[in-house]
Amino acid sequence: MARERRGCVQVYTGNGKGKTTAAIGLTVRALGAGHKVAFIQFMKSLGYSEHRLFENLSPNLTHFTVGKPFFVAKKGSVSEEDLAKIALDCVVFPPGAPPEEYMDLVAGGLGRAAEILAGGQCDLVVLDELNCALHFELIDWNAVERALDGRHFKTEVVLTGRGAPEALLAKADLVTEMVEIKHYYNQGLMARRGIEN
Question: Residue 67 has what pLDDT?
Fold first, then answer.
């Protein structure tokens, strides 16, 4: 007797490179199978190389970004050395006091994502970098949990980003941790178009 397909919660986290890249790969696989996919990017604005491809990749792909052209970080969560490399593109805030404007932006994006998750029209929903938004307290875990609990039972959901909280790891059906063994970033090689962005 065939079992009815149930959507799972997948989490790609850790300090290693490749979380978004893995989600993009899964997106391509799902589209190739004729599935409908929503790829929602938190804490990112348009300008990454995949966005040019996403525009015309498939009529079954919905994509939007929820971010600004700068990064945010809790004071103490980024080393002084790393902060010096991105200082012009980063807003650092005191713990417990993230920028309200950014919180509103993320909450609005999660609201749209929750509607898509609940609607059942998408087979796969990717919430790219939502783990980071949780880590930086730009969104409350309870709001994310409600969105996950409210999803259509056949909808697969992937959450990416560093710093996935324990509550999310416990809720997930699959957790993959990308572990950094060695990274050229530590040798001064910054993000390159088509590889990191």
Answer: 78
Residue 195 lies in a domain: no
Q: State whether the Cα torsion 182-187-190-195 is positive or negative.
A: negative
Q: Supply the pTM of this predicted model.
A: 0.85
Is pLDDT larger for residue 173 or for residue 78? 173
Q: Are 50 and 168 in contact (CB under 8 A)?
A: no
Q: Which of 132, 137, 131, 135 is nearest to 172 (CA)?
A: 131
Collapse the DSSP code of 103 into the 3-class scheme (helix H, G, I; strand E, B; otherwise coil) and give the result. Answer: helix
Domain limits for position 24:
9-187
172: in domain: yes
- For residue 25, what is the domain's CATH number? 3.40.50.300
Distance CA 166, CA 88 (A): 32
In this structure, are residues 195 and 183 in contact, taking their beta carbons and an 8 Å threshold? no
Residue 192 lies in a domain: no
Task: Please report, for the chain, how many H helices and E strands are present, in that order.
Answer: 7, 8
Give the pair of three-digit tokens for residue 124.
Answer: 């796969």
Q: pLDDT category, 1, cuts 50, 70, 90?
A: very low
Distance, in Å, from the CA atom of 51 to the CA atom of 197, rounded to the nearest integer, reads: 10
Residue 196 belongs to some domain of the structure: no
Q: How many domains does the chain have?
A: 1
Judge residue 19's burial from the number of C-beta atoms within 10 Å of its C-beta, 0-12 exposed, 13-18 middle, 19 or more buried. Answer: buried
